[in-house]
Amino acid sequence: MNVLLRPDFIGPRNDDYWNILGESNTSTPVPLSSAIGGMEKERQGERANHKKEQEMKRIISLTVILSIALLALTSIAKAGAPGLMNYQGRLTDAGGEPLDDTLSISFTIYDDATAGNAIWTETQGSVIVAEGLFNVILGSTNPIDDSVFADAARWLQITVEAEDIEPRTRLVTAAYAFHVETVDGASGGIISGDVDIQSDLTVSGKATIGPGHTNTGGYAFVAGENNTASGEEATVGGGYDNTASAHYAVVGGGRSNTASGYQATVGGGSFNIASGDYAAVGGGEYDTASGHWATVAGGANNKASGEQATVGGGNYNTASARYAVVGGGRSNSASGYQGTVGGGGGNMASADYAAVGGGVFDTASGYWATVPGGANNRAGGDYSFAAGWGAKVDTAHHGTFVWADHTGAYFASTGQD
Q: Using one digit for the tens of pLDDT, what is the confidence trace for 107-139?
């Protein structure tokens, strides 16, 4: 309302009256005090109505123009990332005019565009809106866990002063975040947690999987826990407290195993050692292959210290000469060159090419001597043969054959050939 006060109206003069000319262009005299009071009340009413109207426009007819900065929805890693997202929005009234205010705004992530479950939510009570724009850090009061984005279907609901803004906004991946599916070009980093690889994986360089490892070998690989791969291109496939310290050495798994020989291998088990070059221990416990190309297939407390010597299994067996073999059993020893003990217990093949097939406490101590089995037999002469129980060929009786029945005493040879 435009109002003009004029003191020069036409009619009887009276200092107590003024002529008030308004939009009606009439000249009805009214008291000055009444005129001013009425005008002030009218202006106050107009201001109150305008404010109420603006409040209604702001609360009821809010529109939101949204933008998200640096929003990578692949995962918010627990190690290093703070569980936060930068969020920017613009608020206007029903007429499109930007707002200037401090508002309470709630943010909720749902798994559906219209209904669904609330996956995450927080309220920021004093968000400053200047010329319509506001910036907030989502997760400031309730950190965003990576599980929030375990599924690709996520929508963000904005609630301003208890009023939901519709529709919800679909959360999508930032452009370059698509490339996280291949992770090529990464210069390093740590993954804390389980990893499920369902296709090919190529690693150029060394790889360390699991906690507490030492990986100092070039192109070395180590997995499991507290393992060491210090040899060039050495490998520890898993287990605990294992060490592959030589070039191309391998420990497949198990506990406290060591492959310290060049291209040596320990397949598994515990407290096993492959210290000879190309030596191998298949498994078991406390086994040692210290000769070059030596092998202990398994068992416990076995030793293959001769070059290319072999212990097939059993317990406390020793193959200490070159090409010596103990097939199994307990406490057997093949100490002659190419000596062989097939099994049994407490047997010895101590001469070159000597052989004990089995039994207990048998000894083949002559060159090419043989004890096929039995108990307490001795083949001491070269090319000699002793079988049964207590058969004994003297060391000077070469080429002698003794077969003894059980008599309770040794049955000894009497001469050569």
A: 999 999 999 999 999 999 999 999 999 999 999
Q: How many domains is the chain built from?
A: 4
Residues 290 and 318 grouped into a single domain: no
For residues 414 and 340, the model is more confident at 340
266 and 330 share one domain:
no
One domain, residues 95 and 125 = yes
Q: Letter for the amino acid at 124?
A: Q
Residue 183 to residues 75, 81, 171, 200, 202: CA-CA distances in angstroms?
A: 13, 17, 22, 13, 11
C-alpha 398/C-alpha 119 separation (Å) is: 90
E strand map for 96-182: 101-110, 118-129, 133-138, 155-160, 163-170
pTM > 0.90: no
Residue at token pair 């200037």: 100
Q: Is residue 296 part of a domain?
A: yes
**What strands, in cross-sheet order, belong to the sheet with 4-6?**
4-6, 17-21, 29-31
State the number of CA atoms in the 13 A half-sphere of 341 facing the CB: 36
* Angle (CA) 383 311 318, round 5°: 70
* Pick from 321, 328, 326: nearest CA to 299: 328
Q: Are 28 and 10 in contact (CB under 8 A)?
A: no
Residue 308 maps to a domain: no
Q: Which CATH number do you get for residue 82?
A: 2.60.40.1930
Q: Which one of 84-93, 136-145, 175-184, 300-309 scores highest in mean pLDDT?
A: 300-309
Mean pLDDT of 20-24: 37
Domain co-membership, 141 together with 118: yes
Identify whether 414 is part of a domain. yes
Please check whether residue 229 is in contact with residue 236, taking contact to mean a CB–CB distance below 8 angstroms.
yes
Domain-located, residue 192: no
Phi and psi at residue 38, to the nearest 5°: -65, -40
The single-letter DSSP state of residue 89 is E
Same domain, 319 and 406: yes
List all residues 6 or more positions away from 40 whose beta carbon is below 8 Å from its beta carbon.
Answer: none
Both tokens of residue 271? 């407290």
Domain that includes residue 106, residue range: 63-176
Asked if 132 and 145 sit in the same domain, the reply is yes
Q: Which residue has the higher pLDDT, 72 or 189?
A: 189
Which CATH number characterizes residue 322's domain?
2.150.10
User: 242 to each of 210, 213, 226, 252, 285, how far by Cα in Å?
Assistant: 13, 10, 7, 9, 13
